[in-house]
Prior knowledge:
By secondary structure, the protein is of the alpha+beta class.
Amino acid sequence: MSEPEGEDELRDDELSGSIPMLDSTEAYLKELERIFRENLGALSLVRGNLLIHVFGVATRMFVTSGPRQGIHEEPTDDPVHFTFAVRQGALLQLLEEDASHPFDLGAAKAEGAIFVEGDPAVYQRFMGLDKKKKNLLSIRNLE
């Protein structure tokens, strides 16, 4: 995975994995894992692998087909068709958006707080598998 523009602004703790995971971040990752596990038979519909990375906190690689199919806590050698890398603070703002303080996506991207690469349709197809439709983060908001 290439680092986002503005990588020189990342703190050492963001790169080393030493930032504590907040409840909202944990809940987001658990929901993604639930979607994966509850839809093993339909993962071929996703047509791609996803890499979700919260700087300094956690990484999840969702391999949807092949011999390493599964959820991995680090990138694998499998192709990545969609990458979403984000600072935890930016993820919290996206998940718990406050109408009185709108999230400035352009500024977040310019700062390197959010990095999106690849085909967003892969993420959308993955999220479309969710039968519970929990209204998690929509990548359309990030384009």
